[in-house]
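Exercise 7. Given the encoded structure of a 361-residue chain, write a plausible sequence.
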């Protein structure tokens, strides 16, 4: 376990599709004992099946801690009511239940998430797909809960009939969308936490906060610095033991998201099935890329969240190729054999962290 005042790290834990790919947090951040500087404040709460954490230095413009905490909590509850598949009367659940093929005008939040998802989907030739939810649920990783056996091929084929970006039509200019198949559904599990983090960052900006660390599940945004130095994060090593750092980073004014395949899975007939589903085959991915991390240079956690999941779907060969083509700040962990890992970095990652090829235990 890595901890202590020397490192002062927030430990990234690879998230689950619930998603569940979560974060293990090093909560030991301390403000300098200086009466001339504001004290580091912190609060946390629950959202989207995980924990959110806010660490910040208030300014003269910043509301009181209880007021700020209440504002963020209300905003996250409101967002969840729009995008959660686990809430029966949420906006996205109502869209999914409807069989209407007419144009609909969703909330700005729902449309923003969809446009980002469709952009990543287009750039991955549909491998990243926000309509894959029925297959995710079929394999036991959705609202219906876990399973211990494989679905029948006929079940998979039946659901594949209405999974795919071709079953949706979107008018970005009019902020409208419609179904082209009455059974197509949307699932924001792979981007919800990133959306929540962006919302929190907006509220902190409005509150005049310039130095903060914001965390939702498997996503982090840092702004400014602590009084005693930069905010640091660590990407968790893919071990059974939690909280062991694979990489230590100074994040700067950016967002970071990590998706992984080694925490949430089930085993059947001697084979492991992880939660990341390939929409082309309808089954969990079968490659050995077990972790993908994406950093957004403009602190857009929605962007990082979607791309991190996309990289985990496309795998260890196409993932780095797409990262280079799209100019992504990307980091990959590939399991060559049990307990033996290969790291790959995009050129943009190495520009930001030129010492990355030197292993940091």
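Solution.
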């Amino acid at each position: 376990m890595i901890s202590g005042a020397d490192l002062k790290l927030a430990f990234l834990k690879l998230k689950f599709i619930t998603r569940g790919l979560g974060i293990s947090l090093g909560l030991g951040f301390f403000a300098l004992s200086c009466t001339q500087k504001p004290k580091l404040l912190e609060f946390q709460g629950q959202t989207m099946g995980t924990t959110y954490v806010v660490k910040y230095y208030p300014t003269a413009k910043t509301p009181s801690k209880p007021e700020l905490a209440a504002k963020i909590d209300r905003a996250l509850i409101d967002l969840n009511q729009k995008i959660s598949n686990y809430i029966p009367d949420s906006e996205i659940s109502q869209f999914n239940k409807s069989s209407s093929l007419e144009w609909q005008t969703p909330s700005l939040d729902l449309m923003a998430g969809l446009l980002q998802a469709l952009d990543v989907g287009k750039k991955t030739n549909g491998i990243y797909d926000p309509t894959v939810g029925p297959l995710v649920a079929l394999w036991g990783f959705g609202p219906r809960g876990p399973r211990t056996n494989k679905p029948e091929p006929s079940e998979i084929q039946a659901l594949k009939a209405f999974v795919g970006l071709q079953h949706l039509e979107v008018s970005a200019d009019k902020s409208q969308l419609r179904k082209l198949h009455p059974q197509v559904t949307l699932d924001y599990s792979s981007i919800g936490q990133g959306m929540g983090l962006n919302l929190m960052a907006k509220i902190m900006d409005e509150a005049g906060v310039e130095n903060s660390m914001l965390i939702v599940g498997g996503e982090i945004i840092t702004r400014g610095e602590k009084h005693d130095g930069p905010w640091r994060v660590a990407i968790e090593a893919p071990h059974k033991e939690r909280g062991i750092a694979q990489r230590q980073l100074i994040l700067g004014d950016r967002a970071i998201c990590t998706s992984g395949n080694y925490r949430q899975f089930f085993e059947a007939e001697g084979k492991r099935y992880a939660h990341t589903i390939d929409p082309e085959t309808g089954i969990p991915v079968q490659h050995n890329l077990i972790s993908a991390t994406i950093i957004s240079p403009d602190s857009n956690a929605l962007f990082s969240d979607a791309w991190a999941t996309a990289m985990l779907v496309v795998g260890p060969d196409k993932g780095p190729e797409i990262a280079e083509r799209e100019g992504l700040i990307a980091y990959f962990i590939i399991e060559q054999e049990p307990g033996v890992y290969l790291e790959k970095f995009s050129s943009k990652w190495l520009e930001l962290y030129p010492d990355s090829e030197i292993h940091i235990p």
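Remark. The helical segments are 65-83, 91-97, 108-123, 133-138, 153-160, 192-206, 301-326, 347-352. Students should compare their own answers with the one above.
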